[in-house]
Amino acid sequence: MLAVLVVCTGNSARSQMAEALLATRGAGRVRAASCGARPAARVHPLAVAALEERGIVWKGRSPKGFAAVEGERWDLVLTVCDRAREACPIFPSATAMAHWGMPDPAEAEGTEAERLAAFRAALVALERRVDALLALSFAERDRRALAVAAVRIGVMA
User: Fold this and answer.
1) Active-site option among 5, 47, 88, 149
2) Most CB contacts within 10 A, which of 26, 59, 103, 126?
3) For 101-110, how does the pLDDT look when each residue is reduced to its tens digit (9 = 90+)?
4) Is 35 a catalytic residue?
């Protein structure tokens, strides 16, 4: 089973959505978690709403900090925002790291519908990347190959 940690600044939107996708689409093949450099007070409700539109129930989750996951073994650590990439500590147990940077939907302005559209767009981008990651054969991947593949996935349009 591939252990994947997704890191973001607040652990309230992108990282939570990525964790949800990895946990549901990779069920039985992936152990997923997420955390943030400065965890927010709650998971963003529009992230929860966007996931629910895809049939993923993600209510009742709480953002976590680095301390909640630092003692665990990770095969892959993904950063999904530039600020988290800069603040991300070294996870000695991680075999590979990659950056999947993307705009923060929580910073979107406008009406509720316009803000939800930003969360939907982020979710679509994450779905493409997660699906590409899940298409890899984990058993055949060494640390370097996994890192290279994850980095390539991170620059997908």
Assistant:
1) 88
2) 126
3) 899 999 999 9
4) no
